Amino acid sequence: xxxxxxRDQAGHVAAATSTGGxxxxxxxxxxxAPIIGAGTYADDRACAVSATGSGExxxxxxxxxxxxxxxxxxxxxxxxxxDTVMAETKALGGSGGVILTxxxxxxxxxxxxxxxxxxxxxxGGKRVVAIY
Amino acid sequence: xxxxxxxxxxxGVIERERMxxxxxxxxxxxxxxxxxxxxxxxxxxxxxxxxxxxxxxxxEDDPNFNAGRGAVYTYDGTNxxxxxxxxxxxxxxxxxxxxTRTRHPxxxxxxxMEDSPHVFLGGKGADQFSxxxxxxxxxxxxxxxxxxxxxxxxxxxxxVSWFDVDMKYG
Lengths: 132, 170
Fold this sequence. Notes:
Chain A has three helices and eight strands.
C-alpha cells in the first residue's frame, strides 16, 4: 500500500492512498485503503491521514477518522493521537502504520511493525527517507 | 512549515533479515521520486490535493510498490486495485475498489470525487466510469510482475493464510 498526505501553502490538507491489497485475496476482499475514515481521511480542522497495514483491523477501529477526531476534540498532537490509535489497533490484533500532517504544518508518523517505508519533505526542512 | 508532504510505500519486505541492498536502494529511489513529484507541486504553490495525487501516481508506476504496476495478485491470479483521495478543505472524497484497467487508480478516485455524485465505486462499474471519463486505460497485464507472481505461487504452495505475517506482502 502506498499513500501521501500534504499541507499546501494555503494551509489546506489532503490525503491519498492506493493499494493492490494482500497477496492471494479472495471473494472480492477490500481492505482499509479505499475506506474513507479507515485508511484515508483529511480534514482542515484536524489533520490528514493515510494508513497501511492489516486492513480489517483498521476498518474496525476507524483509524484515520479516529486520529482526526482525537486531534480535533481532545486537542492531542498528531503524534499523540497517532500513537494512541495505533496502540488500540494493535491491541485488537492489527499491525501497520499511519502518516500524518496537519494544517499548521505538523508532521508525524506512527507504526507498530519492524519497518515502514516512508519519507517526508517540507519547505525549508530536511528530507527524510527511512525504512526501519 | 509553509508546506509539508509525507509518504509511505509498502514494498513487501519489512524484516531486516530479508532485505537486500538492491531492494532497499530501489525502494529508497522510489520514495525519493514520489517526494520529488509532490514537492514540485507544493513548492510551486499548488494544492495539497494535487501534491498527494502526484506523489501516489509515481508510486503506482513503480513496480517495487504494492499499488498500480507491481500490485500483488489475488488468489485467482488477477490484480484488483483500490484507492481513495480526500480534500481537507471540504471533506470531499472519492474512492474505488476492485478496479482492473485504470493505470492510476488514485486519479480514478479523484474523478469519482470531482465528477460524480458518489463517494465510492467498485468493480466493473468503476472500470466503466473510468473509461467513460477518459482516464488512461491499460491492459490488466500491465499491473503484474514476475516477483508478485512468485509470491502468489509461494503462498499457494505453502497453503497459508493471508494473515500469516511472513507471507503478507501487501
